[in-house]
Amino acid sequence: MKIKRGICFVVAFLAIGFSCVGQQQSEKYTGKIERTYIAPQQIVWQSDDAEIINAERLLREGKHQASTVNTDLCLMKNSTKQASILLDFGKELHGGLEIVTGMWPGNKPVNVRIRFGESVSEAMAEITDTTSATNDHAIRDWNIKLPWCGKLEIGNTGFRFVRIDLIDNDIALHLREVNAISVMRDIPYLGSFRSNNERLNRIWETGAYTVHLNMQKYLWDGIKRDRLVWVGDMHPEVMTILSVFGANQVIPKSLDFIAEITPSDEWMNGISSYSMWWLLIQHQYYLNTGDLNYLKKHQNYIFELLSKLESKIDKNGKEMLDGNRFLDWPTSEDPIAIHAGLQSMMVMTFDAGKEMAKILGENEKAVHYQNTIKKLNKHTPELPKRKSPGALMVLAGLADAKTVNDELLTVDGVKDISTFYGYYVLNAMAKAGNYKDAMSFISEYWGAMLDLGATSFWEDFNMDWTINAGRIDELPKADKVDVHKKYGDYCYVGLRHSFCHGWASGPTAWLSQYVLGVNVLEPGCKKVNLNPHLGDLQWVRGTFPTPYGIIEIEHQKTADGKVKTTYKAPEGVEVVIVK
Q1: Which residues form the Alpha-L-rhamnosidase six-hairpin glycosidase domain (predicted)?
Q2: DSSP secondary structure letter of residue 469
Q3: Are strands 527-530 and 574-577 parallel, antiparallel or unpaired?
Q4: pTM > 0.90: yes or no
């Protein structure tokens, strides 16, 4: 049995979640982490053979206040079965739950069980070895007491669904309100993307929203788990933030945090590639913001870290990195793939190091890093059979883009891409000029998560999972595969799998760069070019944030197939149109 509010969720999601797209920062946005109350959108399920009266009352907007008027409440009472109800708040949220109660005889607290879930399946699950549902990183399964005629707030996790079970017998629980407490930064979506392809539009928006949820006190990988500053995860997240929100304080704060807890002679998060991602983020952040003082703040650390990386190159130019040798999970057991990726990342990192040395006036170091790149280029790994490291070889200039695109990246379509390194596969395809297939990959792979009911992008995804799959926003069916419970590997087995993971947001940044066409040429966005690639699109319009304000852009395909571009740029930004 489903009871819905009288509102179309898709419209509400776009209106509420993205009403600020393209707007300038203004007084109505505090920039701080704020709390917002959200009523349930629908009742997905309630137990049969238990007394549940007036459940639809919970779908109304509330006053967030108990009162002595004990009418028009939802009543739950156990009978032959336990009284239970499953609420859907319409979209992935970060935060907790507010419960406002009425009055019942005895004036004593009532025991209930509260379960949060990113899917219906998770909210309905027990914590057992077979389900892989957990309480690690964030508690999502609680036994608590609800006050008589009062209010209680509980939870701090990522969720969309909440199940409430009445534990006590012989007493009726009176519920006045059950509201989600959304906790996230109050910031405008300065960047935007719209085209005549609604599926691509929604993917752009969902990637932006996924990262927005993870912009808590620090930039997290996921809001359910791990809720940590994983630096590799940060790179696609930062690219999305710079395309959507501009220079937000969560980026330097998170970069500072990981540097403060990691001596320069150790690897960030214990992973050598993650220290390299930190350096690549530093360079990109400077390029978009022009914040020289921030780059100078980490000047010594940057050069110390580059020295450590250089010590891991043998005389033949081959990387010999130690620590955890990791790219992404699907390639984690393939040493040939890992070496190809790490060798490529070393070239990319020393190229960024060279540019940062020039910016910081360390010309001798810049020359030295250029020579280090030449040394690294003496060793070319064999082209792996995996798409992620193959893409990195293209981006590092260690392999021909068109050859890798034709012989590896486009073979078997979206098979063998991950939500994390899929971003770099898309970038490599763009370098080969294959924008049309890249957009098709985005629509097929990331769009498939939306087809299964996702409102944020997942830690991992495999197209094989779509075969006979049930939706995550519906009760599991016997004749359908429960995607959340059945699939997952490594650290994301079953219901432990994060369904809001910032590293999966790459298409948002990619669409802004390669379809809307914005490329930063000079620090602080003082000079950008517009180089759109519309593929089969007829038009695209959007905005891009700079330190000087927003660039407004529109591309229209004309009858002869050419693209007409119009734009409006703030003073201080030079725009070059690539023809």
Answers
A1: 190-378
A2: B
A3: parallel
A4: yes
